[in-house]
Structure formats: C-alpha cells, structure tokens
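Late entry, written up from scratch paper. The run itself happened at the end of the previous shift, but nothing got recorded in the book at the time, so transcribing now.
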Amino acid sequence: MKKRSSNFIFAAIGIAVLIILDQISKYLVVFNIKERGSVPFIKGILNFTYITNDGAAFGMLSNARWIFLLGTGLITLFGIYYIAAQRLYHWTGRLCAVLIVAGGIGNMIDRFSIKYVIDFIDFNPLLEKLGLSFAIFNLADSFVCIGAVFFAVYALFIHDKHAPEDESEFLNPFKKKPKNEEA
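Output as recorded:
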C-alpha cells in the first residue's frame, strides 16, 4: 500500500509542478512580450509570440469555451482516476497521465479565469523556410501532446507486459487472443 500512495503523491507533485511552470510561463509572456507581439528566442528558429486563443489549434471551434472545459474536465478526471486507482502499471504510463492531466488543467485555468488560452511558442520562423506553418502553442499544449503520443506507445507496447493477467487487455483492444479463447 505504501508504494501505491507514494506513486500517487509523486504524480500529484508532478502535476502541480507542471501546472506552475505553465502558468509562470504564460505570466512572463503577458508581462514581457504582450506589448512587443513577438520576440526572437532562437533567431530564425523559435520566436516567443503572444497570441490569445479561444478555440483549439489554429483557432478551430472559436468561442466554444464550454465544450473545451467539459471535454478537458472529463479527460482530466479520467487521468486522475487512472493515477489514483493505480491502473497504470509502469512508470511510463503514470508519467503520460501526469503530462496529460497537468496540461489539461493548465489550459482549463486560463479558460476559467480569462476566457481564453495564452499561446506563445512559435516555430514558424523555421517552418516558413520549409514552406510550412504550424499553430503557436504553450507549455500545457506540449504536455498534452507529448503525454498523448507516449500514452499510445505505452498502451500498445508496455501496459500488457506489466498488467496483472486479468487486466492485460485493458488498454489494448487490438491484442490477439490465444487460439483457445477465440470463438
């Protein structure tokens, strides 16, 4: 039982630290970059560009704040449940859940408090050289995306190796059943 509670405590601390980093980064952008609009951070590669976003990536679903709050809230509760219930049997699964939950909460704080999300990480100086463009994003967005990609890897390749026998198919519905179990 001690390991279970320590895993939850580490996860809660990780979530809190990531949320604080996200909120501090947005605070610094508002007070240092908002008036200037955009500041080169790594010349020709990365700018810090202040924008507000009341939608999703590229401004999709603009003014649908309650949809984002509801969806993010459900995903966050789902992640917290899996962390608390110890249903993620390897540290990589718990790390992915921590990233997703922290990112979700970081952007929810913005949507509740100021009605939009502050974005600032801008790789377009580099991408424009390649004829591409990409959405400007923030740390919370990064946490969610990185967590989601690695969670897919966890679910497909790691979870079953560490889960108890009766839960080995819990996250991977594509796993082939042994021939004696197929109907």
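The longest strand covers residues 46-53.
(Scratch paper discarded after transcription.)
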